[in-house]
Structures are given as structure tokens and as C-alpha cells.
Write a structure and sequence with these properties.
This protein is mainly beta and 177 residues long. The chain is 0% helix and 60% strand. It has strands at 2-11, 18-21, 31-41, 49-56, 66-74, 80-87, 91-95, 104-111, 120-130, 134-144, 150-157, 164-176. Strands 1-12-3-8-9-10-5-6 form an eight-stranded antiparallel beta sheet, with no helix packed on it.
Length: 177
């Protein structure tokens, strides 16, 4: 039997382009669930791409060396695959738009982030809506292939011209009983 243990809740401030969630990964858990709900932008934007980067034990954001692949499934267009073997984020392709178009929700699992003897892996899915692209869902996975202890992550907006308007990030540890 597994239990979710709430470790941290972070409110996404209006105007932010980077939302760090620090010191949430430890040797207490091997698997974490991250729920990001109600994410929206403070203005109407185009190409609203949001991503996740990892934070190492020196509190530095890692901006290179990621591998990821995801499938973008929109109700208005053909499905599209994206993959990268030298990315600047562990997962990209998450969408968010202004609140009047609907907020976005993301759900991820991160495996072995704190271990300095194994790679950090991520898998998850997103759901969003806007009045141009209709419903969009993304499912994907990512990895950071360095044996580095990871202690947190950053939700970021890919352009400083687009800022978050709000949302909530909850980080859970998954305890095995």
C-alpha cells in the first residue's frame, strides 16, 4: 500500500516567470508526485509553453543535459511528437493561457531525484484549454542523465513576455507501507 504525503504547497504568484520549489526531495522517498493545478497566464498569449527544470543540491537550476519526449494531443489538430536529447528542461510542451480561456493542470511523477547514484526520471501528463487550440493534452517523459542529487525543481515560462497569473504546486512523497 502506498500513501501520498504532502511535503510542500507553493502558490504561483502573479507576474512570476520562474517558480522555484526548493528542498522538497530528500532520502525519505524515492518517488514523488507533483500536482500543478489552476495554472494560467496574466495576459492573453500565444505559444504559451511552460517547462520544468531541476535544482541540484547546490541550489543551482540545471539548464542543460536533459532528454525528453512528449506527445501533444490537441482536439483541433493532428497529434504531434516532440523529442530532444540535449534539452534545456526535463519536460516541455505544457500549455497555459489566460484565465478566461481556462486554467491548466499538470500531474507528474519524479523517480530517484535525491539519489546521487542514479538518473532522475520524470513522467506525466497535462490538460489545458484555450479558445483557439481547444482542448490539449500532453503526455511525456524526461530524464536527467547525471548522477547528481536533486533537491527541487522550477516551473518556468519560456518567455519573459509571458508571466504566470496564478496556480498551485503541490509536492507529495510516495511512502511504501
Amino acid at each position: 500500500m502506498s500513501n501520498l504525503i504532502l511535503i510542500n504547497q507553493t502558490i504561483i504568484s502573479s507576474g512570476a516567470t520562474n517558480v522555484p520549489v526548493t528542498n522538497v526531495f530528500s532520502s525519505d522517498y524515492d518517488i514523488y508526485q507533483i500536482q500543478i493545478t489552476g495554472v494560467f497566464q496574466n495576459t492573453n498569449v500565444a505559444n504559451e509553453i511552460t517547462g520544468i527544470r531541476l535544482i541540484n543540491s547546490s541550489d543551482s537550476t540545471i539548464t542543460s543535459g536533459y532528454r525528453y519526449a512528449y506527445l501533444n494531443m490537441g482536439s483541433d489538430a493532428a497529434f504531434a511528437q516532440t523529442k530532444n536529447t540535449s534539452g534545456t528542461e526535463i519536460l516541455s510542451g505544457m500549455r497555459s493561457d489566460q484565465l478566461s480561456d481556462g486554467a491548466s493542470n499538470y500531474n507528474f511523477y519524479i523517480f530517484n531525484p535525491f539519489s546521487s547514484s542514479s538518473y532522475t526520471m520524470l513522467c506525466g501528463e497535462t490538460a489545458s484549454y484555450d479558445n483557439v487550440e481547444e482542448f490539449t493534452s500532453t503526455t511525456g517523459f524526461g530524464s536527467y542523465r547525471q548522477n547528481t542529487s536533486i533537491t527541487g525543481f522550477v516551473l518556468f515560462e519560456s518567455s519573459a513576455d509571458r508571466q504566470f497569473g496564478g496556480g498551485v504546486i503541490k509536492t507529495y512523497g510516495i511512502r511504501k507501507d
